[in-house]
## 1
Amino acid sequence: MEILMILVIGVIFTVATYLILTKSLLRVVIGLIMYGHGAHLLFITLAGLKQGAPPLLGEEAVAYADPLPQAVVLTAIVIGFGVTAFLLVIAYRTYKVHQTDDLDQLRGSADE
Amino acid sequence: MKSSLMLHTITRIVAFIILSFSVFLFFAGHNNPGGGFIGGLMTAAGLLLLYVSFDLKTIKRVIPFNYTTMIATGMLLAIGTGVVSMFLGDAYLTQYFDYFQLPILGETELTTALPFDLGIYLVVVGVALLSILTIAEDDA
Amino acid sequence: MNNIVFLPILIPLIVGVVLLFFAKNLKVQRVISGITMFTLLGLSLYLAHIVYYGGTHTLELGNWPAPFGIVLVADNFAALMVSLTSIVGIVCLFYGFLTLSEVRQKGYFFPFYLFLITGVNGAFLTGDIFNLFVFFEVMLISSYILIVHGGTKYQLRESIKYVIINVFASALFIVGVAYIYAITGTLNMADISVKVAELEQRGVLNVVAILFLLVFGMKGALFPLYFWLPKSYYGPPAAIAALFGGLLTKVGIYAIIRTFTLIFYHEPGFTHTVIMFIAAATMFFGVLGAVSQFDFKRILSFHIISQVGYMIMGLAIFSPLAIAGAIYHIAHNIFVKSALFLYAGATQQVTGTTDLKKMGGLLKTHPFLGWTFFVSAMAMAGIPPLSGFFSKFALVLSGIQEEQYWIVFVALFVGILTLFSMMKIFIYAFWGEQKLSNEEAKERKIGKVVVSILPLVALAVIMGLAAEPVFVYLLDIAEEILEPSNYINSVLKE
């Protein structure tokens, strides 16, 4: 299972890298979001996909899953949520002000 | 946009289901799956459905919240819960809980994590709706 | 159990939230944020005092014991950085009062300013690697907002690149934390240090070390990763640019010094050699950029990069004197670099431009501005008896002691070029033909603004004149952070 997940994460990182290297601003933003998701999945996977009951009060079991990666990734997801919202707003504003989402045209010239 | 009868009718029913389920999720939190973040996101989704299916202006009149104030209140509540334990001589964010006999509910566990979660709930609802409405209102 | 360790994080956070309620009332916002920053300064100086005399203070948040819960650790290094943050925070805030337009001040400037301070202080004080990520994000999100604050066309275009590169770096940070957790099974930095020492740093741990160097290097503007800095720091108004230029890169440097003295210190032959090459390249290319520019703010932005190289050079040499020199350089740079950015803002107010070729003769019309600028420019270039000299002296001396002659050569060469480019600013902007008419010059008085910068200049002078006691203090800090067992024992209480 871990091997499969690692392969999936590899695919996600590949796609994300491709998207970040494109010219369209929106695609870059989507690529960044995918990078975040890939990193979260990597955390969960590397911590070990353990067999065991959910680590909740009231669950009677011999073994429990490790709660820490889940808590950490939840925190990271929440932060990612906020950052994504901000990224979308600022990308939208940039598009509105500059009337383009082509990063080549957003490069800027030396004499300003 | 022409108002769609089907969307309106379904929204009226579904929004209530979503909102009440979000309240359930909020109270389920802490010891079981659920909590302020999930509950808040679901509430935001329910409210967003209202905004989408009815007009932006109509819903603004019905729900006249200032979402910035909502975020600030929520954060203050969440931080304040942690500060209380500082005054009681423990480390920041130390939590306390006890069991109480409440009418109707019977024996209930009350924790200081609940107001903290309520703060998170308010922040999440505020942030989600504020960021979406900011883009939506900027029509051109 | 010391809640005082948490107060430098809590106070700006709570006040920032309260200020959200007064979004439209400028006066209340100014008064409250001013009082808060002074409280913070007093508090952080007190913290530095009790830490120096009473040993490292720790706080286990929520009373969860050390390797499991989140710990905050105030050792001497962290307490010093928190104090520096409040000093530069006060100056930039008051400069902001005087210069920022009312529209900008009303647009939630003060809450996010305080959130930024929260994030910076948190990053200094935390003892948990994931918590470090969280505080980095608090700091970064506030910085995203402050850097586009005002939303001019130029700001939007350059800030989006700043945001993109930092979001990418954050994703890499999570990857790094994931590797660390997979290898050691803990997130507490003291505990990680213990586990890494048991495992002997090899193979995959070196990879993780380089990954962290990459992540923090992106925030700290190290050699191949500095390309975003000069353009994005050019956009925002001087008060914000000064805070960023003085403070934000240093948070990245602090994180590098912390991780490479506490966790990844077992194979200096590999990691610290890499760092040394990066340091040399950062210094050299940064200063080349500065030499080639003809714009006040851009020269200063490139100087941030070359100065960062000196700090990393201290870490790479890795002796107590070198680390003390690096910390001295951080402190010196926070003061002087912020002051210089504020001077750039002040001259821009007078002349209406940052292009050096369009300025001239300011020394005649604004002598006060000119001479105080001259003092801080010389401090920056490292002229004795000002502060910049002693940090470079310590770094060069330790480089010779450790027989790393080539880096010493690079450092001295870069020092000459720094002096050259600072003189270039002085000659073009303050000497030469007077470009402003006398009436214009009389109208544009900025005495008040310059006075608000003076504390930083004064500190740079004092740091230079009192270099001996300062170095006694800094050598104590350096000895402390070079012996990781101090940190580990105070956190895990063994």
## 2
Amino acid sequence: MTHIDVVAVTHRGRKRDHNEDTVSVAGFQSGAVEGQPVRFAVDPIRPVTCLVADGLGGQAEGGRASRLAATAMGDFFFHDREAVVKAVRAANEVVYAEMALNPAWSGMGSTVVVLVLAGDRAICVNVGDSRCFLLRDSHMVQLSQDDSVTPAPGEATVATVVTQTLGGRARMTGVEPHAIEVGVRPGDQFLLCSDGLTDELPPERIEAELAGAADPRTAVERLLRATLDAGARDNVSIVLAAVPCAEEGRDQ
Amino acid sequence: MAELMCPGCKADMPAGTQYCQSCFLTPVTKPSVAENACGDPDCPTGGQPPAAGCRPCGLSGASAPTLSFAWGTVAVPADQPLVVGRENSPIASQLGDYSNISRRHAEVRSDGRALTVVDLDSMNGTFVNDQRLAPNQETPVRAGDKIRFAARLEATVTGEAS
């Protein structure tokens, strides 16, 4: 029996008082203020849904929006890309519906990046600037597509402006989620994170930490430690899903 | 400068530490032991676990302290001191064999959490861990202490949280 090893953590960082990020792994959701890395061993017999939702910081009720978005799709079993895209659109409507309940919640919003591991396919859908990376053979590529202003050539991609979010406006606005589907190979690692990680650490650093760590738990701990050491100006959330290696499968 | 500690693993943190390396938690000011028995700065019961035990931290509560005699255990209620002696004592009937116990030998008092013992100017003396007590002087005893009345009657203090 091989399990997908998922390690998830969410942390408020060192500058913010609250944690407006929400992580969800196979239906288990956390918005802990200063969480510790939790390791899940998920049987891939059913599609595994992991997600990171980053509530819009400094705005009304970012945490509420990210929890709502995570709850709206965290515990479903998605079998194809269209279903995930539909669920992200539905989550957008859920956020707007909640907004209508209280004038103070108007404009709350959240990004979301969802990863579904369904058999030998991986589906990644995102809205906003939370990212999904695939680490294969020690090389990292970004699967998600940021909804942010394209930086001028040669400039760093520390963009704080997102052009599309779940909720985030006073009036109901539809979203156009970015979706990508890739094949899964044994040994693949998928990293979901909020911009609290990618703003503090350059991609090369993340790639090096992931490739150098012995197991997912160590990798997540190292990334979180590096982020906190770098200042952690925003909430930071990390979900690392590791598909078992073929060798491990034969051993067990 | 108050000392810092990690609220998760309770490890000491040097001043200026931003977060615990193993728990990723923000250090908090270390509480002094006197003000907080369980060491948790956020203790909902102020460091004194209730009798039923502390649900958040698991510290066992202070059950009413008792005296364990050779024939059984005798509880000491907080409002009712236990007189040890051959007369007017709840345990007088058990003391037939102990003729060297005075009629009013000693008194054990409780405040609900800890016991104190007073020798009532007895003939043959009261001893805590083989130390003879001065008469009419209250002496605190802790769980595990052995109280000896005269030569042979012994009781062990049990059931105290500390």
